[in-house]
Amino acid sequence: MDNEQGRRGTKREAPQHRKPKMRVGEQKAPRCVKEPLLMEEVLHVDPKFIGRIFTVEVQKVLLPDGRATTREVVRHPGGACVVALDDDRNIYLVHQYRVGTSGPLREIPAGKLEPPEDALTCARRELAEETGFTADRWELLTRFHPSPGYTDEVIHIYLARGLTKGRARPDEGEFIACETISLRQAIDEILDGTLTDGKTCLGVMLAAARIAQQP
Fold it and tell me: Looking at the structure, do residues 155 and 202 belong to the same domain, yes or no?
């Protein structure tokens, strides 16, 4: 008990500005506040599906009140997406079929991490593959959990500027079309419900806010 109390005390005394050391695979996860009264203890994990993009497991967990229940969890390596902004304040969207909408969806360039690559490497790769663009300046706008009720996926959103056009190189079996749209029009389409992809909506609005802060 003394050792455990000592470890807890060390954590409380750690300087707040220092980030905990994490393995590469853990760097994609935003820091979460641990509240003892809300924590669940995982008693058993039963893998149900191992796919090309994600895996699915069923957890038996102990609730804070002592009862046991199950959780269905989708494990995902995480992803990165890019608001590519040119000198005329246009951005670039890709059109791609999405099974969840049973049709094409308009999105900012995006893709999943290929461990052990980091999020920025993923963002650079996806922008080049899907649009042909490379960028001189990269800025992390945010990272977020798109659906924490059932998946551990974390998406990083980058703002890319200083664009240079090249040749797009989509993955084999990936069929996409590209669109140029003004940042102002993208905002209008988000507000009227025309643009509905979550990462795109968040990325565009954050990019607009960042630009408004700069001279």
Answer: yes
CA dihedral 55, 126, 159, 25 (to 10 degrees): 40
What's the gap between Cα 14 and its chain centre?
Answer: 28
One domain, residues 63 and 97: no
Cβ neighbour number for residue 96 with a 10 Å cutoff:
18
- Please confirm, yes or no, whether 172 is among the known catalytic residues: yes
Of 35, 130, 172, 174, the active-site residue reads 172
Output the CA angle 95-100-102, nearest 5 degrees: 65
Q: Which long-range contacts (CB under 8 A, 24 or more apart) does 162-165 make?
A: 162/135, 162/136, 162/137, 163/84, 163/85, 163/86, 163/133, 163/134, 163/135, 163/136, 164/133, 164/134, 164/135, 164/136, 165/132, 165/133
pTM (2 d.p.): 0.82
Give the domain extent around 45.
Answer: 31-75
Q: What is the DSSP letter of 31?
A: P
Question: Contact, 109 vs 126, CB < 8 A?
Answer: yes
Helix axes 183-191, 198-213, angle to 10 degrees: 130
For the segment 157-167, what is each residue's pLDDT rounded down to a tens digit? 999 999 999 98
Quick: pLDDT tens for 182-209: 999 999 999 999 999 999 999 999 999 9
Among 75, 97, 128, which residue terminates a domain? 75
Q: What is the CA radius of gyration of the chain?
A: 20
Would you say residue 16 lies in a domain? no
